[in-house]
Amino acid sequence: QVHLVESGGGLVQAGGSLxxxxxxSGLTFSNYGLAWFRRAPGKEREFVAGITWSGGLIRYADSVxxxxxxxxxxxxxxxxxxxxxxxxxxxAVYYCAADRRGLLGPSxxxxxxxxxxQVTVSS
Length: 123
What we know:
Blueprint: E1 3-7, E2 10-13, E3 18-25, E4 33-39, E5 46-52, E6 58-60, E7 68-73, E8 78-83, E9 92-99, E10 112-113, E11 117-122
Parallel strand pairs: 2-11
Antiparallel strand pairs: 1-3, 3-8, 4-5, 4-9, 5-6, 7-8, 9-10, 9-11
């Protein structure tokens, strides 16, 4: 079975930071396209950041560019999202996802998803 599990969310004040983690079992991330999405209250799910396993391609949503950093650890079969300078509008459930073809763009299928981790930013 394939499982993706997010962790690291929590309640923080505006301007604070968190490090979100995504661990995989049942598959290795090698050559996958990896991404973080989020769903805020009253909004549809949106793309946050993506990275190819090689690290050769990285993409960020304009709303988080310069504040968030996506990375991966090949040895640990995990990926991370460092979230800094958090704003109230960053409050959302954050999900990790993987595309087995190694894609990040519109053609990505993201066959595998985690259950999400809650990030709540207070004033």
